[in-house]
């Protein structure tokens, strides 16, 4: 079974992956607090650092290109509301708001 590990200030949460679900949606479904407000890629409260499994995620979206600096994206930062799991594998992400 493929899992995603969500690292937050409140702890580490391991949940089952659901394909084509965003990080924010998976966190909400599993009662994990993952800060967010707009869910459209504007507020960046869901800023996420991908520690492992970037190859299982969708490509960077136009919203992420507008909101996150190129240097941030290069370092592995994404927006949790825009980042979706597109294939099975182990993914590990951390909530890293500004």
Automatic annotation (TrEMBL):
It comes from the Bacteria. Residues 2-98 form the 2Fe-2S ferredoxin-type domain. SUPFAM superfamilies: 2Fe-2S ferredoxin-like. It holds the Pfam family Fer2. CDD domains: fer2 (cd00207). This is Ferredoxin. It comes from Brevibacillus porteri.
């Amino acid at each position: 079974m493929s899992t995603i590990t969500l690292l937050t200030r409140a702890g580490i949460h391991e949940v089952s992956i659901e394909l084509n679900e965003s990080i924010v949606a998976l966190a909400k479904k599993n009662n994990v607090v993952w800060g967010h407000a707009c869910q459209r890629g504007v507020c960046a409260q869901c800023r996420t650092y991908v520690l492992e499994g970037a190859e299982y995620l969708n490509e960077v979206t136009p919203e992420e290109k507008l909101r996150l600096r190129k240097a941030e994206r290069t370092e592995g930062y994404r927006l949790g509301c825009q980042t979706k799991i597109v294939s099975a594998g182990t993914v590990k992400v951390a909530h890293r708001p500004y």
